[in-house]
Amino acid sequence: MPRLVIDTDPGVDDAFALALAARSPEVDLAAVTTVFGNVGLDRTTANALGLLALAGRPDVPVAAGAARPLVYPAPHEADYAHGQDGLSGGTARLPAHPHGLHRLGAVDLLAQTLRDSPTPVTLAPIGPLTNIALLMATHPDLRSKIDRLVIMGGALTGGNTTAAAEFNIWADPEAAYRVLVEEDVPTVLVPIDLTYRCAVDGAWLTTLRETGPLGEILESFTPSYRAHYTELLGHDCTILHDAVAVAEAISPGLLTTKRMPVTVQTTGPARGAVIADQRLNVPLSPGYREIDVAVDTDLDGLRNWFLTLLGRTES
C-alpha cells in the first residue's frame, strides 16, 4: 500500500484533507507534520492532533515543525478566513489525543519516515513549504525515498493573498523556490486555479453533515471559512483547497496534470507568485523547473469521492 505523509497547517481545508487521508483505504498515512501558516504553529499542531483523534487515527505520529519562514517574517496569518483557532471557533469539539506529539521534530520525523520506509513515500505539503525545504537541505540523501511531492499552492492567473500570490507560497517564497525550482524530485503542484473550480456549496455541506459523526463535525468547522468565501466570491461556497491536493496524493491521476516550467518570485510586488511558462517549443529558461501542474478534474466526481471517503466508517 502506498505510504503518505502530510505536512499541514490546519486550517479548515486542511481538516478535510487530513480526514480524507485518515479514512482512505488506499494509502498508509505514515505521519503528519505541522508548520505555521493559517494560524500559529502551536494552534496548527494542536489542531492536527485533535483532527487525527477525531478521525480515529491517533496511531499516526504528529511532529511540530517550523514556526516561521526561512528568511522574512510572514506579515500575517489567515485567521480572517479560518477563525482565530483555525477551525471557525470549533476546536472545543476536537477530542484529546491519547499520545501527544512525537519526540522528534518535523524535519527529523520526515527523515526517519523516509529512511525507514521499505517503499518510496508520497509527501503532501499543504501549507507553507518551510519544513520541506529544510528536509531537502539537511537530508539530500533521502530524495530518492520520495515517490513524489503533491503540493497545494500557487496561482497561475492571480493570487488570493496578493494580486499575484497564493497564501501557501506567499507565506515562505524562499522555501517554495527551493522546493519547486532547485530540487529534482517528481512534483505535482495543485494551484488555486483548479481548487476554486472544485468549490462545494451549501447543499453539499448539508449532505456531508448527514453522512455521520465525522461529517457533522467537519461541517461545523466551516462557518467562518464559508462566510469568507461567500463574501469574496458573491455566492454560497466553500473552497477545499488542500483536500483537492490530498485527493491526488491518495489516488494518483484523479487530477489531470500538464507539464510546465515554473519559477517562484522572491522579490518585488509579485513576491510569492508562481510563474508558469506556457509558451510552446521554447528552451527551458534559467531559474525554471518543469513540474506537473494540476489543471482539471471531474468536478462532480471529485465532490462525490470526498463524500464517500468522509462518510466511510472507521476500519
UniProtKB/TrEMBL annotation:
SUPFAM superfamilies: Nucleoside hydrolase (SSF53590)
Gene3D superfamilies: Ribonucleoside hydrolase-like (3.90.245.10)
Keywords: Glycosidase, Hydrolase
GO biological process: purine nucleoside catabolic process
GO MF annotation terms: purine nucleosidase activity
One annotated Gene Ontology cellular component of this protein: cytosol
Every Inosine/uridine-preferring nucleoside hydrolase domain range: 4-301
Protein name per UniProt: Purine nucleosidase
Lineage: Bacteria, Bacillati, Actinomycetota, Actinomycetes, Pseudonocardiales
This protein's encoding gene: rihA
